[in-house]
Design goal:
The protein is mainly alpha-helical and about 375 residues long. It is about 60% helix and about 0% strand. The chain has 14 helices and two strands. The protein has helices at about 10-30, 35-60, 65-90, 95-110, 115-125, 160-170, 170-185, 200-220, 225-255, 275-280, 290-295, 300-305, 315-330, 340-350; strands at about 285, 335. The longest helix has 27 residues, at about 65-90. The protein is globular. The relative contact order is 0.16.
């Protein structure tokens, strides 16, 4: 991973005042930055919902009910990841460090993925060096989809905005079956190498086997529908959560409004870290209580990147402070309705498939 040296600019003063105003907000309202009673309720709700749907699924007697319960289970697990796993990874779901770790490990590993790999690289790579190739682990050089200017434009890339939605269906399966295994052997399409400790590799293998056990083997043994239905439900479940996952997160950093900054050979970047976060993230429907509840604040991505040590249940109250200070320091804060963010995402895919170095659009309020 290339280490980046940031510069000072208007973003530095913006961030300094932002952190001070946020501190004043919590102190004056006698609040803590961690999850409150609302968050505790969400944690209990999502875990109980997953357990309930699983029990109902493995005891179902109707094939249609089985499919609906299986897909419902998948969605509940995804919502748990949005609302619990992510905040716990940042240590803010609850006040206790111990319980944050337990919540993160439990909710993430039980999905058949490795909590250590994602947590470490999400916090130490993606959050620090957002959209910077060679430093942000979430920047890919996938031969089928051109998302960085370092990739050569191939003839088929001109159609990527049409076929990418089909590829998105396999996002979750790819993560479960290939992504972490490829990281072990340094064969990933990610632009930085990842070292995984031996113990984490053991855990990775164990939880993947465990996941197959309770999602395929146990239903197959207990239910009378035939193995083919279990496998089809498993595949449909991953297709569904993949589309939801990519629809929620893909529009935030893959947009024709956001920048993809490049550091010089010495690793110097001509902007501050706060400004990097603001120019590489798109927020949508930030004031929506429904989306904040369902998506765990993922729709307020720029706000989260600058304030990762604050639980998402506070975001709606903090958004006016965030906007006011961005405007005061002449920092562009890109927020829009979801439909506009989605259109921007597909424009980005189309431009990257036909232009060598497309320039970000100028965002206008």
């Amino acid at each position: 991973m290339q280490k980046i040296k940031f510069s000072k600019d208007e973003g530095s003063e913006f961030y300094k005042e932002l952190t001070e105003k946020i501190r004043e907000y919590f102190e004056s309202n006698r609040l803590e930055k961690f999850g409150n009673n609302k968050m505790i309720f969400k944690i209990i709700l999502y875990f109980m919902m997953a357990v309930l749907l699983y029990v109902l699924m493995i005891t179902s007697s109707n094939i249609i009910g089985f499919y609906l319960l299986y897909l419902g289970l998948g969605i509940s697990v995804l919502l748990t990841a949005f609302n619990v796993s992510h905040d716990a990874a940042h240590g803010v779901a609850v006040k206790s460090k111990f319980w944050n770790k337990i919540l993160f490990q439990l909710s993430f590993n039980l999905q058949g993925n490795n909590a250590y790999v994602w947590g470490k690289n999400h916090n130490e790579s993606h959050h620090l060096y957002t959209n910077i190739e060679g430093s942000d682990i979430d920047v890919l050089n996938n031969p089928l989809v051109r998302m960085t200017t370092s990739q050569k434009v191939r003839w088929y890339h001109r159609f990527q905005y049409l076929y990418v939605p089909f590829l998105y269906l396999f996002y979750s399966l790819n993560w479960f079956l290939f992504r972490e295994f490829l990281m072990i052997f340094n064969r990933s399409s990610r632009t930085i190498k990842v070292a995984i400790p031996v113990w984490e590799i053991v855990k990775l293998l164990f939880f993947k086997v465990f996941y197959v056990g309770y999602m395929i083997v146990i239903p197959g043994l207990l239910l009378p529908f035939g193995w083919e239905h279990i496998v089809v439900a498993f595949m449909l479940n991953h297709f569904l959560i993949s589309i939801i996952f990519t629809a929620v997160l893909g529009v935030s950093h893959l947009s024709d409004f956001v920048a993809h900054p490049e550091a010089d050979k010495e690793g110097n970047l001509s902007m501050s870290w706060p400004k990097l976060q603001m120019c590489t993230s798109v927020d949508y429907n930030v004031d929506s209580k429904f989306l904040n509840w369902v998506l765990g604040g993922f729709n307020a991505h720029a706000l989260h990147h600058l304030l990762p040590n604050i639980c998402h249940v506070h975001y709606i109250k903090l958004a006016p402070i965030f906007r006011e200070l961005a405007n005061k320091h002449s920092i562009t804060y890109m927020e829009m309705p979801y439909r506009d963010a989605l259109k921007s995402h597909f424009r980005f895919l189309k431009k990257m498939g036909t232009q060598e170095s497309p320039k970000p659009l100028q965002y206008e309020i």
